[in-house]
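Hey, sorry to bother you again with one of my protein questions. A protein chain has come my way and I'm curious about its shape. It would help a lot if you went through both lines with me. I owe you a coffee for this, so here goes:
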Amino acid sequence: MDSFYIIGKVTGLDTGWIYLIHHQTEIADSVRLDHGFFKFNGKADTAEYCGIQLNEKSRSFFLENGKLSMLVKNDSINDALISGTPAQDEYNQFQDQYSKTISAKMDFIEKLYKEAVHKKDKKTCDSLDKIYDVLEGEKKQLVVEYAKSNPESTIAAFEIYSNFLYDFRVGQLDSAYSMLDPSVRNSYFGKKIQNTILSAKRTEIGSPAPEFSGKDESGKLIKLSSFKGKYVLIDFWASWCGPCRRENPAVVKAYNQFHSKGLNILGVSLDDTRADWLAAIKKDSLNWTQVSDLKGWKSDAADLYGVKGIPMNYLIDKNGVIIAKGLRGEDLESKLAEMLH
């Protein structure tokens, strides 16, 4: 079959609009519900990661040529039943048989963590962080094993890319990538993995920090190289990022403690709205150099450094060499104390 056909039904809703979101191309299509029924059709060159959206809630799936059926609950699109094509059926199988148990545990830990943050229970937060890290490591290993057993799978490439976005070992990701069949390595997600590896290698500890520039709050162009001869923490963040805003007090504390000893910070915001960016700088007392091209996740600096999740930072020595990265809370403080005693 050289076309795709999506036939769907929304329970509990007769009218309204439903949207097909092509994540990889950022193109959207829409149709009006007819007594709860809907259909989309078109052509797909290859299996494509998409989303179905209703009432501002969405569920992701894989679209390819063939017939795909959807049963969507109006009040719970996350539980929509989507099946019918090889890629989507494999995606369902992976989620149900491989990752469901670990993902449920990670979601539970995340819920407990948010409760602990609300209660300002730092000891519990630290303990839950460690548990989450262990589970995250288990899931990454599960994905590696899946790729080893299914080297020709688009789903394997997608899961590698999704699970190695943040806080990964380059060697482990490189090894997982090499397990994939050449045809998969040349696919959309295969190329995404390759770019992630190349970016990570550019910013490995011991490598010269890649040069970039950005405009500060007044519009002045600031270059990273202007900090040469000084210790500088490149701090990627955004006003809309909850974890970033929660981490900011620790960064402020580190700056106040170590600035007189030689620490400088270059904040790089992934905001896309100037007013929100400036308001967050003021509210969080980020009294150091800040730059942003206001492109959100399309930030040139974030792309250069391969930043896939924030907060993220890189500590640069006086020679412009990366000596640490991904430092948070007490780890940031102890590393700075080691370098700037």
Notes: The chain has three domains: 4-82, 88-202, 213-339.
